[in-house]
Protein 1
Amino acid sequence: MKTEAFRIYKFGGTGEMKWETVEVPAPGRGEVLLRHTAVGLNLADTYRRTGLYPMPLPNGMGNEAVGVVEAVGPGVRALKVGDRVGYIGGQAFDAYSKRRIAQVASLIPIPKFIDDRTAAAALLKGITAQYLLRDAYQVKRGDTILVHAAAGGVGIIMCQWANAIGATVIGTVSTEEKAHFAKRNGCHHPIVVKRKGPKFAKKVRELTNGKGVHCVYDSVGKETWDESLACARLRGTVINFGSASGNPPLVDLAATGPMGSPFIARCALVNYTTTRKETLARADDLFRAIKRGHVKVRVKQRYKLKDAAKAQRDIEARRTTGSTVLIP
Ligand SMILES: NC(=O)c1ccc[n+]([C@@H]2O[C@H](COP(=O)([O-])OP(=O)(O)OC[C@H]3O[C@@H](n4cnc5c(N)ncnc54)[C@H](OP(=O)(O)O)[C@@H]3O)[C@@H](O)[C@H]2O)c1
């Protein structure tokens, strides 16, 4: 069977994304044929396109999508034709496609109360928010946390969820419009950061009576890391989980002693979704948060899948808020 999909042969700009007709084989043992109905856009898709996150080439693109099972391989009993499922990795990169072969072991059944577009907008970003808030640092009622890129895909879910847990949420954003959006979605104190000069540490100290926050969640990296360290309270936690402005600099560990001995980690989704059981448990927690209304999934941009290059340019240029889905 033939389908259409993006292929990339060389790292670089969005001009390297090639929309092609490709062959899809029949599903093998432990596999299904999926027809995608909605694909999630993630900033990390752009890191892989540019080579910031290296991957073998040539390759497909994207690692988050939702779809319908169209055929099952030999021995597959866990799923049947017509089932709605999604994934957040565990597969070759090929989410930017109309159809694909997928490993049953990595598929997440989508509950009836969540439609496909919402699921594609929520799965990867929501499970990331889940492990960051529940595990990497366990946010408790009464905590104060700092979330960078608070109006973004992961950020807006974190603000809502942390707020529902009972934490005070401080967030950084680049525009007043994003500040309003973050505020409407659980961020108590959005800070609009300027491109030049000190950005947010002084304000965070003011907002916390000089103490600093229990946890900093930094997905911006290079431009924010040093100030992020300065925002943690005594024995607080500083987590980097992204490189929107480039990778964070090397840490001078000895220098962090006088800063209150913060716990420092670089967190990656793959290390918190190590088995299907773990992934499904995190997905269930996310689905419960959505059902209870603690997390409202904000699908703010939709593009045709074949316009994914435009979507990538928009997320790179900080023109998006909330989640973005690509429709095959
Ligand atoms: N480690 C993990 O497990 C994991 C999993 C998923 C996502 N992530 C990371 O989480 C972050 C958010 O992902 P997302 O897909 O939801 O993206 P997003 O937050 O919707 O978009 C990125 C945002 O980063 C901010 N930003 C700050 N400096 C930037 C710069 N120099 N260039 C571009 N953007 C900049 C922008 O918000 P402002 O304009 O408001 O500053 C922008 O909107 C990314 O860094 C991603 O890599 C990590």
Note: The CA atoms of residues 195 and 323 lie 24 Å apart.
Protein 2
Amino acid sequence: MIPALASHLRHLREAASQQPLGLYIHIPFCKDRCTYCSFVTTRDVGLKDSALARLAADLQVWGQALNHPEIDTLYFGGGTPSLLTAEELTHLVRVARDAFDFSPLREATLEANPGTIDSAWLQSARRLGFDRLSFGVQTLDNVLLQYLGRIHDGAEGINALRMAQAAGFQRLSADLMVGIPGQDLERVISDARTLVAAGATHLSVYMLDLDKNCPLKAQVDSGRLQLPSEDEVADAFEALQAELPNLGLAPYEISNYAQPSQLSIHNTRYWERRPYLGLGPSAASQLDRWRWTESSVIQAWAEGRGKAELQELDAAAELAEIPLLGLRMHQGIDWEELRARATMLNLQHLTDTWEAALRPFLKHGLLEKEGSVLRFTQRGMLLSNSVLETFV
Ligand code: SF4
């Protein structure tokens, strides 16, 4: 528990009693490090015991501090949660069930790497109550998977979905990456078709984003590998946007497409600004007007020495998050409602400034307004970052 939060415990507890929370647990271990990865993760499994002990202790501390609040979504992300043994996973889930009230649980997701699972593990995860799996497939092209440093090949990506179905999972997501060096962008479409045919009911489509320190960036900078051009990537995204509805997947967020009732309830809570508690290194929490992020230094975090960062959101910051996060959703936001809220808070100068800044985006067809609803157009989704900067 962050010392500065201790004096606000009464407010936090009250906020946690008003609506169920989401619970995110970060498992910071990977078998190998992918060449593009900037997530908080390590190959040092020597830290596993202390990290799991710390997670269990944090679950107990927070469960007690917040008076055993209700949880309606559970999400194990990483890193690679599928590196936990069935026994380790069972232990963490049991501790969580003792510490929190899971009676309103609507969804329990595990992220999994296709190169780390087998049928027995999937069956135990299903028995534990997980009902959704999110697989980091990225591409089915084996050459590209090697560039990315992934530990699995394309066939294992497809097999993972099939094994998961056989183990009783019906809610299956796969990550698909666009913009990989050497990627045949038409192949992205056929990968999407193959993944859906293999059982994926949800796709998260990401653009490769190279962190300045990652090995893949060094290869691109040295000229050994070449990124596709921005136009090629935009064409691939547009082709995907056109094809995915034919596969029964509708867009519901900038990067996410799902069959009916298959959207990620947990991730939607971030865009809808509903409260969540995040445990593990780098995990973020949002409750009441407080947001805090655990230390990203895995060993220090595991030993309880890491420094968490705490932020108190003022009224202006909270207001800005409504369009910043809400516009990511395909349905958009009610702009008149936002204006009314700004007026009530005496912050109409903010909505005036934003309206002036958004005018060119509306004019150039990146945003559209229908009645009071403001949302991205399909083209606008590709260039969403430049629009969303308005609210930062
Ligand atoms: S599996 Fe995911 S978290 Fe682990 S190294 Fe690869 S991209 Fe990073």
Note: The chain has a mean pLDDT of 96.
